[in-house]
Amino acid sequence: MCGINGYIALHNQNEQKVKGLLSKMNDLIFHRGPDEDGFFCENTASSTLGMAMRRLSIIDLSSGKQPIFSDDKSIVIVFNGEIYNYRELKEKLKKLGVTFNTTSDTEVILKLYEKFGVDAFKELDGMFGFSIYDKNKNKVYIARDFFGEKPLYYYKSDTQFIWASELKSIINVIDKKPQLNSKGLNLYFRLTYIPAPYTIYENIHKLKQNHYIAYDVENNTFSIHQIEKETNNATPKIDVSFDEAKKSVRDLMYESVTSRAVSDVPIGTFLSGGVDSSVVSLCLSQFASTPIDTFSIGFEKKSYDESDKSRVVAKLINSNHHEFIINEKDLAEDVNKILLNFDEPFSDSSSLPTYLVSNRTKNHVKVALTGDGGDEVFGGYNKYYIGKLNTKYTNIVPKGLHGFVKNVTSPLLKTSSDKRGKRFKIKRLLNSIDYNGGDYYWDILSLGFQKNTLGAFLLPKYLNDDLFDVYKKDTGITHPKTLTDFRLIDKVTSLEGDMLVKVDRTSMLNSLECRAPFLNKKVWNYTNTLPEDFLMKGWNKKYILKEAFRDQFPKDFLDKSKSGFGAPVGDWLKSSLRAELESYVTENELIDQNIFHVDNIINLVKNHISGKEDNTFKVWTFYCFQKWYHNIYKRL
User: Fold this and answer.
1) DSSP sequence for 147-166
2) Which of 369, 372, 446, 566 has a Cα-to-Cα distance from 284 of 20 to 30 A?
């Protein structure tokens, strides 16, 4: 696991200057790879091109130093990630007469590219961001993995082409301060994160998952291509019995966990006690020769603490269990570091406990398996009920009465707690109801401000009617209605932009590598061929996954409800974070900022602080934006 950087100075610059910029970019991501660094830099006919990386040594500790070159030195690669099937690919290449100089997965990518060109990228099972400079073609290829587990950003101007694993490496070496991107800002306030291809900055982009850039060094032009055609909502369902499918799911999960456990350093699991992390921990424990290490975190605030569930699993699998109970003081000194490391606004509050469990875990192991992706792959979110609920509601309540129902229930659904209980869910459902048959899921994704309320807080210049067009185009789904539709949309929005960002940044900030066995192309593609009621039977979510492992757990354990991995930030905004929050809503500051409707945003914050109404998620979204704006953007 590493971090990579690349810099092309057009019109030929001094090679030492480019090396200096690459060194600066590397220093900014030291946490991603504290073990060693590597550089490549040379002048071309039209530019000075350089690539660099920081390495966290996991596989091939002795000979995996990067960059790695082809035998004739004409092709060079820097790589961030892990290729789980590299041993199989290596054997395939050996049979074709290819020889190797290292035992690293990085060299396998390079040799595979030499043999098959960009078609090689689709053979990779793993998480990755890498760049290959091919002098023979005078091109640079920059690729990102199937799910987007590893990040990749890029920027192009008349004088520079830059790519990097983290935004901070780019914004600190570009020619001029970037402007705010209105679509990125709008997406953030709707979703609480910014999915690819957007960032908060104009002209700086995220490379979409399962895509690669082909950059022509001579002409300073580039094109973006999909690595492999993804399974879509038209995938034919296979004719298989539930019992056969259940066995296949179980076999696939054991296979995936086994492949993700390849490591030359100690490995453990994050164990929250939910279905996904429990299944992963169980699978790992059953082929490990000694008890595995498991790690969980809980809160002193009991309504957020579910560490009792993780203890049940730890006892079941006889793991060396490490449990960390945290309080507000534990986060006080780290909240700045955690939130600002995202480099752009990001307000998923579960990033805070994820950072802390990563911080504690790194003292014991260097790699942790997680349950991330289980909900997207097997259909585990409450929001996946929306299709059924929307149909039932609109069949019962006439359209003309819907506004009346919302007005009558609104006072009854107010809460003074930041816990996402029944009243929060009912209110969110009512705000997402769509009588036109298809836009409700785009609204249910909005964890911050929904479409019908955002205009009261953001100035018109930052509002966009075509906000989700790129995701509709990518998935081919304009009006999502089915579980498969919802899961595909999540793959390109919340999974790529939120879940994987959260885990990557918080774990790598602690120099800990996290791997997600559920994020396996074979598992994903298989679940997409199953009848939807195998995944969600009635109101029973992740049905086939739970049934596949039911006999391995205590009775009814897999049916217990579990809250999300959030933090009581609503309380903190009224206490330890209050003074800072209030500093962000001074009238003169907001007027000068020229982003918000001043009076409305002030009232939103004041009503939350006073306890008049619970505005946790809107106010936390605002707070995280302002923290980024004042500590990063204003200082550029």
Assistant:
1) S--S--EEEE-SSEEEEESS
2) 566
Question: Can you give 257-272 as a three-state secondary structure string?
Answer: HHHHCCCCCCEEEECC
297 has binding-site annotation: yes
Burial of 103 (0-12, 13-18, 19+ CB in 10 A): middle
Mean pLDDT of 356-377: 95
Report the alpha-carbon distance of residue 19 to residue 40 in Å, rounded: 8
Q: What is the mean pLDDT of residues 596-603?
A: 98
Please identify which residue in the block is written with the tokens 């409305």: 600
**What is the bridge-based pairing of β-strands 267-270 and 513-515?**
unpaired
Q: What share of the chain is helix, strand, coil (3-state, %, to 5)?
A: 45, 15, 35
For residue 614, the Cα-to-chain-centroid distance in whole angstroms is 27
**Segment 11-18 long-range contacts (CB within 8 Å, at least 24 positions apart):** 11/46, 11/47, 11/159, 12/43, 12/46, 12/47, 12/48, 13/47, 13/48, 14/48, 15/41, 15/42, 15/43, 15/48, 17/48, 18/48, 18/49, 18/50
Predicted confidence at residue 565, as pLDDT, reads 64
- Is 1 exposed, middle or buried, given 0-12, 13-18 or 19+ CB atoms closer than 10 A? buried
Whole-number Cα distances in Å, 384 to 91, 196, 353, 442, 488: 42, 22, 25, 12, 12
Q: Which residues contact 517 (CB under 8 A, 6 or more apart)?
A: 253, 256, 257, 259, 260, 280, 283, 369
**What is the chain's length?**
636
Residues recognised as catalytic? 2
How far are the Cα atoms of 191, 483, 563 from residue 380, in angstroms, in the given order?
Answer: 19, 10, 12
pLDDT for residue 221: 95
**CATH number, domain 242-378+516-559, options 3.40.50.620, 3.30.10.20, 3.30.230.30, 3.30.470.20:** 3.40.50.620
* Cα–Cα–Cα angle for 469, 472, 476, rounded to 5 degrees: 145
- Choose the weakest-confidence range: 13-17, 282-286, 388-392, 516-520: 388-392
CATH 3.60.20.10 maps onto the chain at 2-226
Please state at what angle helix 275-287 crosses helix 307-317, rounded to 10 degrees.
Answer: 20
Report how far residue 627's alpha carbon sits from residue 584's, in angstroms, rounded to the nearest whole number: 8
> Which residues of the chain are in CATH 3.40.50.620 domains?
242-378+516-559
Residue-wise pLDDT tens digits, 29-87: 999 988 888 999 999 988 999 999 998 766 555 556 899 999 999 999 999 999 999 99
Residue 282 has φ and ψ, to the nearest 5°, of: -60, -50
**Residue 615 — pLDDT band, cuts 50, 70, 90?**
very high
**C-alpha span between 290 and 302 (Å, rounded):** 33
> Is 434 marked as binding a ligand?
no
- The structure tokens listed for 404 are 């009346």
Helix (H, G, I), strand (E, B), or coil: what is residue 135? coil
Which two tokens mark 635? 């200082």
Distances (CA, A) of 621 to 193, 430, 437, 448: 9, 21, 29, 6
**Domain range 2-226, CATH class:** alpha beta
Backbone φ and ψ for 432, nearest 5 degrees, come out as -100, -5
pLDDT band at 305 (very low <50, low <70, confident <90, very high): low
Q: Is the pLDDT of residue 600 over 60?
A: yes
* Residue 289 buriedness (CB in 10 A; 0-12 / 13-18 / 19+): exposed
Distance separating alpha carbons of residues 168 and 361, to the nearest angstrom:
25
Judged against a pLDDT cut of 90, whether residue 550 lies above it is answered with yes
| C-alpha gyration radius of the chain | 24
